[in-house]
Amino acid sequence: MAVKKIFLGEEFMPTQWYNLNADFPSPMPPLRDPVTQKLITPDFFKPWSPMSLVAQDVTPERWIDIPEEVLGIYKIWRPTPLYRADGLERLLGYAGKIYFKHEGVSPPGSHKPNTAVAQAYFTQKDGIRRVTTETGAGQWGSALAFATQQFGLELKVYMVRVSYDQKPYRRMMMECWGADCVPSPTEETAAGREILAKDPNSPGSLGIAISEALEVAMNDRDTRYLLGSVTNHVLLHQTVIGLEAKKQFEALGDDPKVVIGCAGGGSNFAGAAFPFVADKIAGQDIRIIAAEPTSCPTMTRGVYHYDFGDTARTAPLLPMHTLGHDFVPAPIHAGGLRYHGMAPMVSHGINLGLIEAQAFDQIETFEAGLTFARAEGFLSAPETNHAVAAVIAAVKRSQEEGRKPTIFFNWSGHGLVDLAAYDAYMSGKLTRYALPQEEIERALRALEELPKVA
Ligand SMILES: Cc1ncc(COP(=O)(O)O)c(C=O)c1O
Fold this sequence. Notes:
CATH topology of the domain at 5-11 and 66-109 and 233-447: Rossmann fold
CATH architecture of the domain at 5-11 and 66-109 and 233-447: 3-Layer(aba) Sandwich
Strand content: 15-25%
CATH class of the domain at 5-11 and 66-109 and 233-447: Alpha Beta
Bound molecules: pyridoxal-5'-phosphate
Largest sheet: 7 strands, mixed
């Protein structure tokens, strides 16, 4: 009988994270000051970021040791299983193999704690007691609540209003782990008040929630701001996914030729894909595909440009694929894919031609999610369904071309607290949504004053 699930013992867990910045054929463009637009030094981050994490953002080292304390907590759910999706292969009539890495086995149910645990560890090591953050779908907020609780830190979470209303169970989960979670925009911060003055019913956005969490951290010496995606250190921590997968493929004697992940800020995609991007840089023939929603098409319809990481323009200017910092995406169910930009490292990879991007409508993604659930049993998070839709598209393309490459994708999280979204889809309440070109052009006008990426 064919192998269905590869579990490796703890001795197979990676003990180092992989930094793709050491191997990019040309260096990633630097970050810039949001006011002066000049290049910044790590000191810029001092008021709101733990400096151990800032050091990881700029390190030229290829391999970074994972501290024992972090590995100890990883062992609660790592190594995660690599599954052969033979049920999906049969259903699609695919002659090739499909594998997925199951990141939904962590306590909060997604890949997010791979970095949350590392960030909480370095934060307490830097002598900090309180933390703020933003969350979209609630996956990151719940992961950080789990992690900060492990290290005895206090946590306040600004949750994007639309998801706060759609996903009460994620808030409850955060509260179970001792965090305080409020819907953003709030009246508590200047950034929140400014948005509410313009639109009292604002559904919120990740850009707004980041501004609120940042503002609170900047005004309190004992508080720092942690974020769940986009920055180099987050992507670095997530590489445990791809590194572990490589060892599992080695044990299997197989080798993926197509690697797929969904991308909101880019962290789970990068975590699964970057160790394979290294192989591609070294000359191997691998297609690496990031999947995003058509309603927030940062990579497929945005521009590669410097832009603010947040709506209030506090965070540095990032060189990234962006739709503009005041872009507010439609309130789709994949709350974690609603960020206006893409991680600078992923954007650089796209710009260098190492990574491709594809966009999927939410109807198509839920269809893919049900196909997967019926073939493999697992119910994916709405974000993860974008990766599943990309896998199905890759299978169709390979079948048309008469090829059967081994496909590997990252199953970033389960959808067991997202069943309302499945219900909305199955009862016909979801509609197709094509983002009007005028809206993209309007939002991109906000970039006119900002520097271009050289
Ligand atoms: C399950 C899941 N997958 C993917 C994402 C997208 O984030 P990222 O692109 O940082 O992996 C999220 C974000 O909340 C998520 O919860």
